[in-house]
Design brief:
Residues 2-68 form the HMA domain. This protein is of the alpha+beta class. It has a single domain (2-67), classed as Alpha-Beta Plaits (2-Layer Sandwich), CATH 3.30.70. Helix content is 32%, strand content 34%. The chain is built from two helices and four strands; from the N terminus they run βαββαβ. It has helices at residues 14-25, 53-62, and strands at 2-9, 30-36, 41-46, 66-67. A hairpin with a 4-residue loop joins strand 2 (30-36) and strand 3 (41-46). It is globular, with a radius of gyration of 11 Å. It starts with a strand and ends with a strand.
């Protein structure tokens, strides 16, 4: 398991938080995703053999936000 923090622009409310966390935890290999709205990031725990950060960023973009 690995933990990374992905910076994300555009998240402002609880709905944004739920969208990003839901999208990430639906990916195979992601065990936990926790958005911090104040810090504008999401902490993700995942199995690096099952999912790549680039795939997670694509999922965040699909929700309408801008991962860094």
């Amino acid at each position: 398991m690995k933990t990374d923090i992905i910076e994300v622009d555009g998240m402002t409310c609880g709905h944004c938080k739920s969208s990003v966390e839901g999208a990430l935890t639906s990916l195979n290999g992601v065990s936990k995703a926790e958005v911090n709205l104040d810090a504008k990031n999401v902490t993700v725990e995942y199995d690096e053999n099952m999912v790549e950060v680039s795939k997670m960023k694509t999922e965040i973009e699909d929700q309408g936000f801008d991962p860094k």
